[in-house]
Amino acid sequence: MDERFLVTGALGCIGAWTVRHLVREGVPVVALDQATDARRLRLIATAEEVAAVRFVQGDITSLDSVEAVLDEHRITHVAHLAALQVPFCRANPPLGALVNVVGTVNVFEAVRRRSDRIWGLAYMSSIGMFDAGDGDPIDGTLRVDAAAHPRTLYGVTKLANEGTARVYWLENGVASVGLRPLTVYGPARDQGLTSGPTRAIGAALLGRSFEIGFGGATLFQFAPDVAAAVVAAARSASGGAEVYNLGGTPASIDDFIATVESEVPEARGRITHTGPGLPFPDRIDDAGSEALGERTWTPLRDGVRRTAALFRERLARGELRPVDVGLE
Ligand SMILES: NC(=O)c1ccc[n+]([C@@H]2O[C@H](COP(=O)([O-])OP(=O)(O)OC[C@H]3O[C@@H](n4cnc5c(N)ncnc54)[C@H](O)[C@@H]3O)[C@@H](O)[C@H]2O)c1
């Protein structure tokens, strides 16, 4: 039987890349989002690719909406990415909990009711559910089975998502795969706590200065690689409630800025950073994620170069607005 994917949060950064990935594979994809502006997808995909997508405006806090889209489009795989990121949860905690926790329960419940015909469910957790001290006491590395002590409401909601997945497997046999990215970067990453590095590249190309709001080190993950992992995760969910940390390039923010300066001459002297490191572990063990198949993690230098090239190309066509790089 043919695959038909539903992507929730499809108009966000990782959602747009996931949709593009599926369209390029020739897989029918339905893009569900509460928002209607497909600017992130238009930034990274051709007009023909955008035209191949079925857009549905819907809110995951409504179980009816999620069920309707699954039935109407006879969905076989779900990539559940819709969520409110750290600053949005902080600004409106009840809404953050509603979207991230209840919305995720709705997705699992809607899938449970159709488990005879939905073969794969992937959802996004986050390294953001851990505290910086949750790494191994000897070497600081965060193992996949580390106990989480979230410091943000967002982290609490992601921890709840992993619990939801576990309970739906134990009580209902709904298999799923959860992924925990850390600092996703690349075109279309324009909002959220860890969007600063990407916005800095865009700002530099628009001739502006930019201060990244954190220091220390983190794990950089190029958005198209994360999208490929999401699709592989949905296809691999066949038993259990698996969760994987993801690979990427570990680097300090100083190294990131130096990389950008060497790849993007316009950026020289324009990017600074301030503040302490992110309140999450920065050394991540992605052991086990090989279950998703062989993954490519684009080296940071290549990802920065490709991000700048896409921005530069849009700029030359007069199509790169500040909002496209998260500056408004
Ligand atoms: N970007 C990262 O570095 C990162 C790191 C760890 C985890 N994640 C997780 O990955 C997922 C995708 O992240 P992103 O960077 O693409 O986020 P994003 O903020 O760019 O996109 C989120 C999308 O969800 C949509 N949405 C919000 N509430 C909704 C609702 N009630 N119903 C339907 N759609 C709704 C938004 O309109 C938006 O398009 C999220 O679950 C996020 O928590 C991201």
Any descriptors?
12 strands; 11 helices; Rossmann fold; 328 residues; 7-stranded parallel β-sheet; 3-stranded mixed β-sheet; binds nicotinamide-adenine-dinucleotide
Describe, in short, the structure shown.
This protein is an alpha/beta fold and 328 residues long.
State the CATH class: Alpha Beta
How much helical structure, as a percent, in the residues? 40-55%
Bound molecules: nicotinamide-adenine-dinucleotide
Distance between the termini: 44 Å
Write the layout of secondary structure elements.
Blueprint: E1 5-8, H1 13-25, E2 29-33, H2 39-44, H3 47-51, E3 54-57, H4 63-72, E4 77-80, H5 86-91, H6 93-112, E5 120-124, H7 153-172, E6 176-180, E7 183-185, H8 196-205, E8 210-212, E9 217-222, H9 223-236, E10 241-245, E11 249-252, H10 253-263, E12 271-273, H11 300-316
Parallel strand pairs: 1-2, 1-4, 2-3, 4-5, 5-6, 6-10, 7-9, 8-12
Antiparallel strand pairs: 9-11
The structure holds nicotinamide-adenine-dinucleotide.
Nicotinamide-adenine-dinucleotide (NAD) binds at residues 8-9, 11-15, 33-35, 59-61, 81-85, 99, 103, 124, 126, 128, 181, 183-184, 191-192, 194.
